[in-house]
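In this supplementary section we document a worked example of the pipeline. Step one takes a protein sequence of length 93 as its only input; no multiple sequence alignment statistics are reported here. Step two produces a three-dimensional model, which step three serialises into structure tokens for compact storage. The input and output of this example are shown verbatim.
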Amino acid sequence: MIDKLLTAIQYKKEDENAVDLVNRIMNLLSKLSRDANGVQDIAKSKNLVFRSILYFNKSTFPLEIVMNSLRVIHNCCKTMENFKEICLETHSF
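The serialised model returned by step three reads:
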């Protein structure tokens, strides 16, 4: 459900509601990624991994979104030994 919500949001820097919503979703994902089951569910979703990498790499996003995205990616890399294979083979990144 979270990945559908992230896909539906039309992110515009001027739209404070969209920025706040993306920030809250990424904050929720960063908290979910602390749990072993949560990090596996996040890693299985191509959209969530892609959005986390996208929000982390673009300097146009607010710092809170960038930091929450970093937390998600970091927890995936730290917790899952096969995260690289999931990204390269399963999600074709």
